[in-house]
Amino acid sequence: MLTVKDLHSYYDKAHILQGVSLKVDQGQVACLLGKNGMGKSTTVKSIMGITPPQIRSGQIIFEEREITRWPSNKVSRLGISYVPEERRIFPLLTVRENLTLGLDIAGATRDEKMNALEKIYESFPRIHERLNQLGEGLSGGEQQMLAIARAMVMKPRLILMDEPTEGLMPLLVQEIKKIILALKTSRITVLLVEQSAAMALDVSDLVYVMEKGSILFQGTPKAFREDSKLMKELLGV
Amino acid sequence: MQEILMQILNGLVFGMIIALVASGLTLIFGIMDVVNFAHGEFYMVGAYMGWFVIGYTQNFWLALIIAFFFVGLFGAVVEVSTLRPIRGRDPLYTLMAMFGLSVFAQQTILMIFGPIAKEVKEPLITKIPLFALEYPLYRLLIVAIAVVIFISFWFFLQKTKYGTWIRATMQDNVMASALGIPVRLVYTLTFALGCALAAASGVLVAPIFSVYQSMGLTVIVTTFIVVVIGGMGSLLGSILAAIMIGELQTVSSVLVSPTYAKIFSFLALIGVLLIRPQGLFTISKR
Amino acid sequence: MNHKRFFLRLIIILVLLLAAPLVLPKYYGQLLTEILIWGILAMALDLILGYIGIISFGHAALFGLGAYGAAISFVKFGSGLWLALAVGLLVPVVFAIGVGGLSLYIKGAYFTIITLVAAEIVHTIFLSFPIFGGENGLNFDVPMLNLGFFRISLAEPVHYYYFVVFFFLLSYFICRRITQSPMGKVFQALKDNEERAKAIGYDVRRYKIVAFVISGFFSGLSGILYVILQRYANPDFLHFIISGEAVIWTLIGGMGTLVGPVIGTAFVILLGDLLSTWMKNHLVVIGLIFIIAVIFLPKGIVGTIRNRWLLSKSRD
What we know:
The structure holds three protein chains of three kinds.
Chain A: E1 2-11, E2 14-24, E3 29-33, H1 40-48, E4 54-62, E5 65-66, H2 72-77, E6 80-83, H3 95-106, H4 110-123, H5 125-129, H6 140-152, E7 158-162, H7 170-185, E8 189-194, H8 197-203, E9 206-211, E10 214-219, H9 221-226, H10 228-235
Parallel strand pairs in A: 3-8, 3-9, 6-7, 7-8
Antiparallel strand pairs in A: 1-2, 1-4, 4-5, 9-10
Chain B: H1 2-32, H2 39-57, H3 60-83, H4 91-113, E1 127-130, E2 133-136, H5 137-159, H6 161-171, H7 173-178, H8 183-209, H9 215-230, H10 235-255, H11 258-275
Chain C: H1 3-23, H2 26-52, H3 59-76, H4 81-105, H5 108-128, E1 138-139, E2 144-146, E3 151-153, H6 157-180, H7 182-192, H8 194-200, H9 204-230, E4 232-233, H10 240-253, H11 259-275, H12 283-296, H13 300-315
Antiparallel strand pairs in C: 1-4, 2-3
Helix pairs in contact in C: 2-6, 2-7, 2-9, 2-10, 2-11, 3-4, 3-9, 4-9, 6-7, 7-8, 7-9, 10-11, 10-13, 11-13
């Protein structure tokens, strides 16, 4: 469904992605692991069409369509959603506005909107409680839930998640794990970037490890666990 | 006593005129991070357009509406042709491009219409009794129209779909785009709207101060002072600061002299920039 | 640029400048005098705009203060040329220290706004208060140039032309020395990355103020030379449009090149002169050219040529 071929991305003159290639099939959950600064976020941003970074060469193909260097609003409309690293909730919009923003752009009808929102309220009861609160008033965990809910409400076919568990309590990490598994059940494809590998390994079908701007390892979680060197580096085991 | 009262009212009227221009300027800055040095020229072109349309139709209100839309359109064209190509560069260039536009606009208007100021008749000449003096109804109407515009604008921003797009873009344009908002289009519309507001102000002020080609420069200096004091990007801040500066300038013009009035405003500007650079009326950082 | 080449170009320019009055008709001689005077202002602006990277719309005030300083010296103190020069240079320098000081606390577009407002205020002050002559300004007779062993009347256009050439070359050399000195490199660093310059340990504040002082000095010089040429000082000399035109010349010529702004000045003034034979409002065209230059030719004439030259060199 998503293919990235030999991608080279730069921040100004810094050559961050040095030939990244990966492939995710429909319905799969793939994770992108690696230490800080290895280019994981940059990869996801490049896929989403966010600049900077600038893509200088390589290809990104989504459902047989080349989307390299497409602006992010166009990418979004193809059915790809993004949950960014810092959550990036609109601080001065209410929770409801944060959610409906994406829907309005997709041009949903009133009924479609109601349906989509109802589904979200089921999965995210805490959000349902806080509909009229401003984004900046939510706690870190609530903001993360909202960021994910916001991405899900648009019924995407691919969700890009950048470190969704960062800075969250273990309890919330488990909730996010449940959400990702639920997405998988709904046949939504997920590309998950994580620094802490533990949770990611539990939910993923496919593991990619990045180092210094390119893919170092590619395989199943089982294969990953059998690689003691990687296990030590990324899980400290 | 009566004189002071008259000036206080005049200050309010003047403040509202500036508020309209300033709100456009602060909107453009808040959403696009662009300091529109040509903003005064959109005000000026609006006034000339108003005069022109009145010349043909004798209808002041029609002229106001036409000027609003046409200058808005002109603003959109400017944004796409001049601002968009240089958006990624050092903001220095955007400032200079807008300055160039102001020179171009002023001189073109001068070329077309000549140096003699144009007169526009007030659409209403009745005076109404107010607090023991007789005050021109038209000027009060300006205040009323400005208030209506501001309220509609607030409503647009808070309650409509496109208004929410604009607010989202202002708060986080990267994320807004990632959600599918056509951010480039939002920029163009915002710029157009800002220019249209300035144009409306130009038409409204025309009967009071007449229409001449350097009126843009006159207003932009006060507008900048207002926008900075109110807080760049804060609409409410601009409105409040505009009324404050409007009163300050009008009253001190009469009590002391027009020159000192300008000096006071300038000192206020420096004071705010040194002590509270985010503006007097902003609550948060932005 | 190596020394031989530089000196060769220098000699050529020197010869051209010195021979000009013999070759050019009187009108163009006058125009050239003005171009050189404005060229000094453009170089002064370039120090701030092209090197430090701040847009200032206040240079008209510095120019005008120099002009009025000299004029007041002539009219109110009855002074000779040298005292007028001293006064005319002192006033803008003091003002520049103040402006430079402000630039330490107020940055970016906010600072540019301040320069605009300040220029307006200064203009209004000189327009309103009668000691400055109000709307009509101040008139005076052209002073004699007293060189000790002989006196030259500066009223003669040719004499004045050489007087201006002297100061122009002097200004250019001093500015060039400054920009090529270590201090000049710091100025450049301030434009490219102020934070890094601070981190390396440069006292950014001192350099900024010094830059403004130098800029004020030469702007004032330009104003003095202009006011002597015109034999009167007028509030228009302080009008913001002068600042604006200087920005236009500097960009079109090439910011940060020092030579560029002078060439830009010559280009715009000559073009304006040419256009004014056909149209009354030549600034319409100049304004349009400026906008196009900002978008498509941001390095200006000299900057773009130098860039191309450097690129072609690196290809060999």
